[in-house]
Amino acid sequence: MDGVSYQRFPKVKIRELKDEFAKFELRDTDASMANALRRVMIAEVPTIAIDLVEIEVNSSVLNDEFIAHRLGLIPLTSSRAISMRFSRDCDACDGDGQCEYCSVEFHLRAKCMSDQTLDVTSKDLVSSDHTVQPVDVGGFENSDRGIIIVKLRRGQELKLRAIARKGIGKDHAKWSPAATVTFMYEPEIHINEEMMESLTLEEKQSFVDSSPTRVFDIDANTHQVVVVDREAYTYDDEVLKKAEAMGKPGLVEIYAKEDSFIFTVESTGAIKASEMVLNAIEVLKQKLDAVTLSDDTVEADDQFGELGAHMRGG
Amino acid sequence: MTSDCLGKPGYPLGQNGLVPKPELYSGQNAIVAVNVHLEYNQEDSLVMNRASLERGMFRSEHVRSYKAEVDNREMKDKKRKLGDIVMFGKIQSKIGRVDSLDDDGFPYVGASLQSGDIVIGRCAESGPDNSKADSNGAEPRDHSIKLKHTERGVVQKVVLSSNDEGKNFAVVSLRQVRSPCLGDKFSSMHGQKGVLGFLESQENFPFTTQGIVPDIVINPHAFPSRQTPGQLLEAALGKGIACGGSLKYATPFSTVSVDAIIEQLHRAGFSRWGNERVCNGRSGEMVRSLIFMGPTFYQRLIHMAEDKVKYRNTGPVHPLTRQPVADRKRFGGIKFGGMERNCLIAHGASANLYERLVTLSDSSHMHVCKECQNAVNVIERTVAGGRKIRGPYCGYCQSVDDIVRVSVPYGAKLLCQELFSMGISLKLETQMC
């Protein structure tokens, strides 16, 4: 055992990075690491979301619970979340979520005075903290209006106070910053050229067409089957079945590389996709710290005995 | 009166919900995977995604209304005295809490009422002009309407009106918003019904390379022998439509052939048969087999666990048999029936059986005369010296000498007495134990 280290140094290569979208490669690590990262991004990266709603007047068609639920699901800009306190750990207030360290207050007042239907949107929420705002939903139709909470007709009114708090996706999905977090194993595709050459052009074409995604194509000049986009392969086994059906098993061989992953990360807009990844790594580190025993604690020896010594690498 | 309504009805696939809806649907399109999920979807139960539910899937609103009539002051009956007129109003009730009631006897809109609270305060007016004039002062009689122990909700609206006979009445509607919970029932359009067996977190579900996670996982054993391949066709067709296909009529009289469905799926970039490669959500490893996944229309059925939970330790008993009542509304117990009894006998658990059927049910005593083996009553009789004493006395033997007290279920004693009333006297052999 001594001196043998299995430590690896994972590499990350960013392919595409936008505010709410990221695509990157993660290499030289296990599925366990990749999956831990995915799970933490979905369930444990903190954000801020409306958690408590006090409704003063509600004469809209939706009931109070419905509106409170809708408010909770509105993503709020949460770059501050990682440094904020959970209101259950907050000393400044008795965990009632009324102080500036753990909560942000919102107000909403809307009354329809005209004959036209009034859309109450996330833009109508007035925040007590300028860093925490409902996200700007760009790129969609009606994006200038924000997220619709409720529609009011003439004479109807909605007046409420809401308190937003820090939380994680494990407690409620509204706190999850992730819209999509997924990874795929990088495929390795080998074409058996010799066997492929024994096919007619027509057979080659039908082989290429058998894949639902464009993984293979035929070179216009050489009439050879080439791999155009191996990452388009979804491991659906369609081409393998086709090869078998043509009586040519082993025409292509496809393996999943066990140590490289292609991540696709989309955020709700609460935090940037890049922040989501970095915060996930930070959260993961904190979790590891919680289980790592420090070298200098003597109590650890008393407490864990041999196990403690073992964990410290003794 | 009750009404149930789904909170956010679904919209047709392929329309993104941005166009005005032609109809309101009674259910929603959930992404359904046909797979085993630990052991939590055995025997037609299903596993749901907790994140989906928290985002509002299958939330429903239930409204229940309570009605109370009141006497009209103007057209009072001659026979009724002024003090007996029943009016709405708040009084300190002995039967339930009145905290959320306003002075007029109605709860304010938005008040949260718990089980046992008063919904409508109602009392008979009795002032100083009350002819009865009770010694402890005129106390208004309470006619309030109370919530049963199974009922609760938030006040939706309060209506005051009168009927054709000129009687005033009030209706208070209580609303409850329910998110699916363990034990609630769901069904697809193919009669594949099942109860919710587990709420799993999003990150633990298998995920595709596109990042799609199922909302519902049903067990593959639901299909063989049930003859509902229609559900699989629905999922496969729906998947193609959701990925850019056109709306199709899929009635039994029109033919959307399997070939058309698989061709559409192929064009949309999916495996022909609707299967997908997924990774295990817990370990991140690729699952060896492909999983069938697709959108399926599911409905929430009204059979909900909250309406059916039944539990009690002590509670009301039936006045005749002195056994616990069975009704859920009356806070009754769960029947320990003949088959359960057989089971305990088979186990040889006689002490347990005795406890269940006697001690915890209708344990009682009766007296038996050892001499004549008749059941004996407790009576009051005069003894020598004119003193009256009360105790078991055998009228047949005219003695108190050989009377023993036996422990029997009240039901047995009742049977004894009923037979006796029909002229049948049971002889009871007794033994010390």
TrEMBL record, chain A:
GO terms for cellular component: RNA polymerase II, core complex; RNA polymerase IV complex; RNA polymerase V complex. InterPro entries: DNA-dir_RNA_pol_30-40kDasu_CS (IPR001514), DNA-dir_RNA_pol_insert (IPR011262), DNA-dir_RNA_pol_RpoA/D/Rpb3 (IPR011263), RBP11-like (IPR036603), RNAP_Rpo3/Rpb3/RPAC1 (IPR022842), RNApol_insert_sf (IPR036643), Rpo3/RPB3_RNA_Pol_subunit (IPR050518). It is found in: Nucleus. It holds the Pfam family RNA_pol_A_bac. GO terms for biological process: transcription by RNA polymerase II. CDD domains: RNAP_II_RPB3 (cd07031). Residues 21-294 form the DNA-directed RNA polymerase RpoA/D/Rpb3-type domain. NCBIfam families: PRK00783.1 (NF001988). PANTHER family: DNA-DIRECTED RNA POLYMERASE, DNA-DIRECTED RNA POLYMERASE II SUBUNIT RPB3. This is DNA-directed RNA polymerase, RBP11-like protein. It comes from Corchorus capsularis.
From TrEMBL, chain B:
The keyword Nucleotidyltransferase applies. Pfam families: RNA_pol_Rpb2_6, RNA_pol_Rpb2_7. Its EC number is 2.7.7.6. One of its GO terms (cellular component) is DNA-directed RNA polymerase complex. Residues 332-430 form the RNA polymerase Rpb2 domain. Keywords: DNA-directed RNA polymerase, Nucleotidyltransferase, Transcription, Transferase. GO terms for molecular function: DNA binding; DNA-directed RNA polymerase activity; ribonucleoside binding. The keyword Zinc-finger does not apply. Residues 21-330 form the DNA-directed RNA polymerase subunit 2 hybrid-binding domain. PROSITE patterns: RNA_POL_BETA. GO terms for biological process: DNA-templated transcription. PANTHER family: DNA-DIRECTED RNA POLYMERASE I SUBUNIT 2. Belongs to the RNA polymerase beta chain family. This is DNA-directed RNA polymerase. It comes from Corchorus capsularis (Jute).
